[in-house]
Amino acid sequence: MIVYAxxxxxxxxxxxxxxxxxxxxxxxxxxGREKTTKPYAPFSILYQEECPDRIAARKRExxxxxxxxxxxxxxxxxxx
Length: 80
Hints:
By secondary structure, the chain is of the alpha+beta class. The chain has 3 helices and 3 strands, in the order ββαβαα.
């Protein structure tokens, strides 16, 4: 499983999710085929992390969605 963060290119928005196939999932987000992220497309990949299984991936996803995790992602986005 891959935990990933996407940064909207045009708006101040970061999305965190998990998937088996990041390439396909990223494509779906950018094509506006995901309801949650459709208004914020297009995206760039801000962060990705490989996890051994779904349980570990879910824990990491929860961390990146938390206050501390989101703050780290904002810092990462603002450095690039």
